[in-house]
Every structure is written in C-alpha cells, then in structure tokens.
Amino acid sequence: MRRLPVLGAAVFLTLGLFVPQSQAATVGAASGATAPAPAPRAIPVPKSPHAISDNPRFRLSSQDSAEETAPRPAPAAAKASKLAPTAAADACGDLSGVIDSTGTALVQQLKALPQITCTYPLFNLTGEDARKTFREAQMVTVADALRDASATYKGDNSTSVGQLVMFLRAGYYVQDNHADVVGDYGTALKGAARGALDAYFAAPRSKDVTDANGEILNEVVTLIDSTHEAGRYAGVVKWMLGGYDATWPGQMNLAMQHVEWVVENGFKAKNDERGWRAALKADPAILDTWAGFITRNGAQLNRLDVVSNVGRHLGNALDVPELKDRVRPLLKDLINRYPNVGPTAPITMNLGWYTRQYDRGNCAAYAICDLGQRVLPAVLPTQHTCTPGLKIRAQDMSPGQLASTCTSLAGQDAYFHRVIGDKGPIPGDVNTDLEVVAFDDYTQYALYAWAIYDIDVDNGGMYEEGNPAAPGNQARFIAHEASWLRPDFQIWNLNHEYTHYLDGRADMYGDFEAGMTTPTIWWVEGIAENVSYGYRGERNADAIAEAARKTYRLSELFDTVYGQEEDPEVNSNRVYRWGWLAVRYMLQKHPADVQTILGAYRTGDWTGARTFIKQTIGTRYDADFATWLTTDCATNDCGPLPDAPTTATTPLCTLGDPRQFDQNCRRDGLSAAAGNYSYHFVYLPAGVQRLTITSSGGTGNADLYYGGGSWATTGSHLAKSVNAGNGETLTIDNPPSGWVYFSLAAAQDFSGVSLSTRTG
Known about the structure:
The structure is a single chain. By secondary structure, the chain is an alpha+beta fold. The protein contains 30 helices and 18 strands. The strands form four sheets. Strands 1, 4, 5, 6, 7, 8 and 9 form a seven-stranded mixed sheet that branches. The protein has a five-stranded mixed sheet with strand order 10-12-17-14-15. The longest helix has 22 residues, at 399-420. The relative contact order is 0.09. Residues 5-17, 21-44, 48-68 and 72-89 have low confidence and may be disordered.
C-alpha cells in the first residue's frame, strides 16, 4: 500500500502545542494487541522551510540545533578579533582581557565583568580567539575556580560565580561547533567539571527557591547538559521534579525548563554515554517523582507550561526495557487523566505517542486502543464533498476555502493528463475516491495524525494510496494548512500530493512498495514537483538555483532513493529539486523516452524500465543535461513544461462526418462562438472498459461535456470538465455500447482546439 510522506519536522512548538518527536523507525499499528496490518502505501511530502526556520514560532526543540546552546536572547554577531561589548552596551567593557589571560588572571578578568550577560559575546568566538580562550587548559582553570567559589556560594551572584558558569557554557558551545579550532576536551576537563558541579550542588544555598539563586541555577542545569553528565546529577533532577510547584519564581521556573535539555539528551545519547538510563534503572523512584510532578501541577497544564514541556519526556522511559513495567501504569494514568484535546493535549497526546513508539501493539495496557476514534470528531469536525470521488475532512476551513480547494484539484486533473499524456487509469486500478484531510497547522497535524491515521508525523504530511486494486479503497492525503502564509490560505503541498494520487492511478502499477523494486523516485517526486509548480504557475527558484551548481549527472539522478544522502537536507535537495530538474529535462528533450519508461511503469515492468534507463539511455544524455542546466536554466528558468506528445501523435480522424470519432483519433481546429457547441459522437462496441476524451490547445475557453446515449449540453449531461482554458479531460469507466455523445461548450469564443478520444 502506498505511503508518501510530506515535508515536515520533528519536535515543533508553535502556538504552544508540543508535537511528538522525530520517528526514526517505521511505526506499526496502535489499534490493538494483535500483529499490525501491512502499512498503507505512503509517500512523504517535502518539509516546509518556512515551518522550520522562517517562522519564529517554530523550533525543533527547547534546544538550539547545535548540541550546546547559546544563551537567550542570542548574543549579537561577534567581531572578527577582539570583542567589543555587545550584551550590556558600554557597561561590559572590552573582553580582550578574558581572551588574552590565563590562570588566575583569567579568573579575575571574568569575575570583574559587571554582570552575567557580559559573557554572551564569548559564545560567538571563532578562529584563534576561540582557540586561545577555550582550549582545555583554560576550561580546567575556570572549572577549578567555580569549584572553589561554590564552597562559599551565597545563593546569588555576589561572588560572580555566574560569570564562571557562563564561561564554561560558552566553551562547550564553541568547542561543540568548532572542535577543529578549539581542540579536543579530555579527562582533565571532565574531572574538573565534575568537581565544579559537585561543589555547587553541595552548597546549601544552591537549593534556595529564589530568583537570585535561580539566575545561577538555570545556567548550572544547562551546564549539566553541556558536560554530558545527566546520570551523575539525576538526584538534582529528582529534587527539582519533586519540589517544583506554581510558587517558584521566574528564574527558578527557567531552571526547571532547562531540565528538559538534560533529560531529553540523556535519553538520546548513544550507548547511554551520559548515564541517564543507568541512573533511572538504579533509582526508578525518579519515575514516580516525575509522574507526581505532572499530577501535582496539573492545574498548570496549558500548552506552553513547563509541566507539559518536561513531563512529556517521561514517555521516553518506555525505551528502557527494565523500566517498562514500572512506567506503564504511570503513563496509563496520565494519558487518561486529562482531556486529549485543548490545553492538556500536549501532555496526553505526546505520552500516547511514546507508547506507540516504544510499546507498539500494546495499546490495551494504556486503554487507548480507540484514542484516534475518540479525538477524530473533535479535531476534524468539518466534512465536505467536492465530487462523489473527492472529499475533504478539515479541522477549520471556511466555505470559501473548501470551495477553492475543490476547484484547484479539479483543474489540476486536466493539467496533469495534458503533461503526462492521456492514457486513463491503469487497468485494475479502482482507486476512484480520495479524501483530503487538512489540520489547522503543523503542530495539530503532528499532535493528532499519528493517532487517527497511524502514520509517522516527522514530515509535512502523508499521502496514503492504499491498495489501488481493492474495491472501496480509500486513498487519503493527510495534510496541514500553511499557517505561516496566513492570512493567505494554502494547504501545504496540496498540489504536489494530488499529483501522487493522479500518478499512482495513471502511471505506477500496483502499490508503492512494488514501485520501489527499482529506483523510481526521480520520477515519482520529480513529476509531483513539476506539476505542482507548473499548475500553480510558480517559479521553482530553489531548483533553478541548484541547476547552476551542476551537482549531479542525469544518470546519477535516475538512481535517487529516499534517504540516500547522509545529510537530510542534502537528501531532500536531491529528491525534490533535482528530481524536478531531471523530469523537466526528460519531458522537454526526450518525451518519447518518458513514454517508453511510463509504458513499463504502467504494467509493473520495473526491471524493463530500469534496463531501458540504465542501458539504452545510460550516460548518453549526461553531457546534454549539463549543457541544459547551464543554458536553459540560466536564461529561461529551465524552459516551459511541455504537453505530452500523446495528443499530437494520436492519428487524425478519417471519417467523413466532422462530428464523428473513431475509438482512437483526434480532430483539430475545432471552434464555436460563446454559448454554442461543437457536438461530437463515437460508436463503442461491447466490452469497452474505458473511454477517455481530452481537449487541448487553441484559444478561448471550451468546456467538455459527456452525455452518454444523449446529446451533451450544459443543462443535460452525465459528466463534465469545466476548467479555465481548453485543457479538459473526462474518463468514463464502463461506458455503454453503441453511440455515445460529447461536446465542447463555448464558455467563451474558442478556436483551434484539438479533441481526442481513446478507449481501453
């Protein structure tokens, strides 16, 4: 069954809604304890660059993209050499003394800084300044100074311990991003950092629930994460989970927020290199404290709250086999204690997702086998029918938005067939019904789509073809609105994904897994991008820019598969942008070859298509492709997307009556004045399974009507295609034998139109 993921992201926070984390493994069904059914055919949708980087309300997690985090607000860009003050204007002075000092002088320079924020520019050091400042010996010096200062810590920054902590944080951050410049950190720093943290947490005033202590504590908690020592300081996390409540002041609340970094990265660490899992196994009572942290502060659950933020990671404990029995009843209680919609949804739905990820097939243990069915009517209340074969289910769409979506999809059908060539559905493909599901934004999609539709959500949506040979099969595109474009309305990748539906019916035999027998992604994603951009009349600026780089040969692009490149962004670039370029070139320069390849794809002859691509085509077009990238793409935006050669190569009708068609022929130069018709008919013998009628070319606006055994008019017809312009297609399954009638109705004066019929 066919599943194509849409463009998306992993752990996003937008409008205050947490969403499940990136899913690295294929996830099975969550609807019962029995073995899961085979996954539906699904194709991923490209991720939105806007949702990831351009919209400030989105972030991958509480942590920045780098391993270590810079302080918030982010410091201004650093100078190339000595740093001028950036964090607190002139009050901070020049940081040259910090950069150039060593030993006791370095500690004195740091303590002399008038406030903690004066250290912010250190996070931007690069080059020789970074090496001098943060080489291991310097870090050990400051860690030892923090250890000594912690012995008399007074619960505030009166002795400048904050500046020492921030120096260490900055060092780990810069080294993590520029290890080739700073050099490696070894056992000397590891021991010194442990000594500093041990001394701080041993100080009685380190547990003061005050803003003064919180200002230091929130950075020290982050330093735990920087040093990769989550397991060693599990007791600190347990104390904070057990002590936190709504009375904690702002800076202490911030320290609690930073606990998320410690536990999240502790679970993620390979081979438990941070010791977090071992610490939980040694003291599983931390899990009870964690659950109590949530229930004790349940009144705070309101999307952006620290309780949801930190609490949801309790679900990661299911990934520790020794803790499963201990954590199962805790999660069952939490998931069912609070509503699964509204302000408490981020905690309940995230914890539910963890049970699917790490305890799949065991939903009964959490009483959530019907979770998707429970939330469906509340989350997706809007149902709308465009046509009998096209329906929309939405979270929040206006009547106008529903109508415009229906119109967009109807018009794209004819455009697709004009580009591909009108051959009609693959014999045996009965996938006549498509449901478009539109969540309100990415976070709503990620929060609920996994439970309702049993899909991964680390993408921009999902197209599920299902089994195209099964009667009554429901193909479905599960998507979300492009909230970053508001007030303009757009369902992200709607036209891209609808192309997958059309392509699956017209070009790709069987299900998605069958098509993956050989590399076909160059075509699957390349044609979806071409039709999506072309139909909307948009310039694919990113792909055109890629053309100038000439990164790939055409013969390489024929080998593209999902996940081929190690870097996800590079892989996405190859799949979508270079897929667009490869398909566009082939449609322009070698349309006959495209038809040969699609002829094999339509019959499921994947090996035959592959042989033709690798042996007949091989590398013979590589040089011309490189020239095309340099010329056509540089001067003409890679040229227009041409119509398929099918209409032009369909033979002209030879019957004397200009209204009559053979089963497979075309008539050119048709015309009519506005309000009038160009009437036609064809005789069909018994046994014809499909009649396809296509119009194209010319000027004006001709709409296509089919009347079956009667003349077709705008007021009396069985089917119609009424797009702007003259690109219309009607596919009639199991038409009656005998004479059938169709017409071109002039919505405006039209002339020079070609009309063709094809039976199958």
